[in-house]
């Protein structure tokens, strides 16, 4: 079982819709959770972090964490073509300080 | 405040050669982490350096080695290059070992290595 798994995608949504990206992780000791956005040919950019169960909102982005289900999600409201990118889920554990475990990413396309 | 800078941007090497990639950490950061991102994959942890010593290593062979200098900049060295080493190499700095747990990383722009 992989450390971090993301829905395979690609995901395609129309402009203005809600995009939902999902991620599961295997280690119950995981303590920190991040979403990165990566445009083609560029390095990953941190867009959201979440550490406790529930929702965290930042502008059009909402991260959701359910530690009991070992599940993290990212919702993008009012999706724009500029949101088209690969979204990477990353997880940090207390047992391996400084190391983040990344999923393979989900490619999102927002069409006008 | 300057961010993380990496050099070179792109590099083409022949199988069997050696390569050195460089990273300048963000001002005030004493910890540097290196990741390898193969095409279509998420970044994979190579190792982390804290105060000039290796502070954790991922599942990479010994031909991947690193250094951190007193100014906290860092090098990643790869010997005996293989075709599968072709990837985007990412460097990230953080203010202290383990603090990436709390704040995540800010990555540099990366070095695209192609091995032919």
Q: Gist?
A:
The complex is a heterodimer of chains A (112) and B (116). By secondary structure, chain A is mostly beta strands.
Description:
The complex is a heterodimer of chains A (112) and B (116). With 112 residues, chain A is mainly β. Chain A is 0% helix and 57% strand. Chain A has strands spanning 4-6, 11-14, 19-25, 30-38, 45-50, 54-58, 61-66, 71-76, 85-93, 100-102, 106-111. In chain A, the strands form two sheets. In chain A, strands 2, 4, 5, 9, 10 and 11 form a six-stranded mixed sheet that branches. In chain A, strands 1-3-8-7-6 form a five-stranded antiparallel sheet, with no helix packed on it. Chain A starts with a strand and ends with a strand. Chain B has 116 residues and is mainly beta. Helix content of chain B is 3%, strand content 49%. In chain B, the strands form two sheets. In chain B, strands 2, 4, 5, 6, 9, 10 and 11 form a seven-stranded mixed sheet that branches. In chain B, strands 1-3-8-7 form a four-stranded antiparallel sheet, with no helix packed on it. In chain B, a hairpin with a 2-residue loop joins strand 5 and strand 6 (53-57). The chains are: A mainly beta (112), B mainly beta (116).
Descriptors:
heterodimer, A: 112 residues, mainly beta, five-stranded antiparallel beta sheet, B: 116 residues, seven-stranded mixed beta sheet, four-stranded antiparallel beta sheet, 3% helix, globular
Overall shape of chain B:
globular
Largest sheet of chain B: 7 strands, mixed
Give the N-to-C terminal Cα separation of chain B: 38 Å
Secondary-structure element order of chain A, N to C: EEEEEEEEEEE
Class inferred from helices and paired strands of chain A: mainly beta
Q: Tell how many strands the DSSP assignment of chain A holds.
A: 11
Question: What is the approximate shape of chain A?
Answer: globular
Low-confidence stretches of chain A: none
Structural class of chain B: mainly beta
Rg over C-alpha atoms of chain A, rounded to the nearest angstrom? 13 Å
For the biggest sheet of chain A, the summary is: 6 strands, mixed
Uncertain spans of chain B, ≥5 residues at pLDDT below 50?
Answer: none
């Amino acid at each position: 079982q992989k450390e971090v798994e993301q829905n395979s995608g690609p995901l395609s949504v129309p402009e203005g819709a809600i995009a939902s990206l999902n991620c599961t992780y295997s280690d119950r000791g995981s303590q920190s959770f991040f979403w990165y956005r990566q445009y083609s040919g560029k390095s990953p950019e941190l867009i959201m972090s979440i550490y406790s169960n529930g929702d965290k909102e930042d502008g059009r982005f909402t991260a959701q964490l359910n530690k009991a289900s070992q599940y993290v999600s990212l919702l993008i409201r009012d999706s724009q073509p500029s949101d088209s990118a690969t979204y990477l889920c990353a997880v940090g554990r207390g047992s391996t300080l400084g190391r983040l475990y990344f999923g393979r990413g989900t490619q999102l396309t927002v069409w006008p | 405040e300057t961010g993380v800078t990496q050099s070179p941007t792109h590099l083409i090497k022949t199988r069997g050669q050696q390569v050195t990639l460089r990273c300048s950490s963000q001002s005030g950061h004493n910890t540097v982490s290196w990741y390898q991102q193969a095409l279509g994959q998420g970044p994979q942890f190579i190792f982390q350096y804290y105060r000039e010593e290796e502070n954790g290593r991922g599942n990479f062979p010994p031909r991947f080695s690193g250094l951190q200098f007193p100014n906290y900049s860092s090098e990643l060295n790869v010997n005996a290059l293989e075709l599968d080493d072709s990837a985007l190499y990412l460097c990230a700095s953080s203010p202290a070992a383990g603090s990436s747990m709390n704040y995540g990383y800010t990555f540099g722009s990366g070095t695209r290595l192609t091995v032919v």
